[in-house]
């Protein structure tokens, strides 16, 4: 039986530019190597159409469950660093991206900060996130 370590956090991974599956794999690896953080499980990978009918390539999406002792903003900064390392440029909202990492849930916390809202406000609107959360909850 493994020892519980830190809070359970669900992080969504998405990519629709370049080697999408490779970006997701690199993100899983990098997340698993964060300090005070352990990758517990990963959902299946699912291809989805861009949101809001935008004209851009389809996304590969996945969700991971981690246990972490990082605080939410430390984790957010680490995830944004991973995005940048994979070539993510934040030029415009909803633009295509090599890698998008979103904190969907962070334990039972509710956070409403200018740079971080948890649970993620789009959770009720993204069916694929709901499916991925359900899959991880069964594992």
Low-confidence stretches: none
| Mean pLDDT score | 90
User: For this structure, what is the CATH class?
Assistant: Alpha Beta
State the CATH topology: Alpha-Beta Plaits
Count of helical stretches: 3
Largest sheet data:
5 strands, antiparallel
Strand content: 25-35%
Number of strands: 7
Tell me what the structure shows.
The chain has 139 residues and is an alpha+beta fold. The chain has a single domain, classed as Alpha-Beta Plaits (2-Layer Sandwich). Helices cover 28% and strands 29% of the residues. The chain is built from three helices and seven strands. It has helices spanning 20-32, 72-85, 127-138; strands at residues 7-15, 37-42, 46-48, 59-68, 100-106, 111-113, 116-118. Strands 1, 2, 3, 4 and 5 form a five-stranded antiparallel beta sheet that branches. A two-stranded antiparallel ribbon has the order 6-7. The longest helix is centred in the middle third of the chain and has 14 residues, at 72-85. The protein is globular and about 40 Å long. It starts with 6 loop residues before the first strand and ends with a helix.
Q: Which keywords apply here?
A:
alpha+beta; 3 helices; 28% helix; two-stranded antiparallel ribbon; 29% strand; 139 residues; globular; single chain; Alpha-Beta Plaits; five-stranded antiparallel sheet
């Amino acid at each position: 039986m493994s020892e519980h370590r830190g809070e359970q956090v669900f992080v969504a991974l998405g990519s629709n530019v370049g080697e999408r599956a490779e970006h997701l794999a690199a993100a899983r690896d990098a997340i698993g190597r964060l300090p005070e953080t352990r990758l517990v499980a990963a959902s299946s990978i699912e291809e989805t159409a861009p949101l809001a009918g935008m004209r851009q390539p389809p996304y590969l999406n996945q969700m991971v469950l981690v246990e972490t002792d990082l605080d939410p903003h430390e984790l957010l900064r680490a995830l944004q660093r991973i995005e940048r390392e994979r070539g993510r440029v934040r030029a415009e909202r909803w633009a295509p991206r090599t890698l998008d990492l979103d904190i969907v849930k962070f334990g039972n916390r509710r956070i409403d900060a200018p740079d971080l809202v948890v649970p993620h406000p789009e959770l009720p609107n993204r069916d694929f996130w709901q499916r991925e959360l359900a899959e991880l909850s069964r594992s």
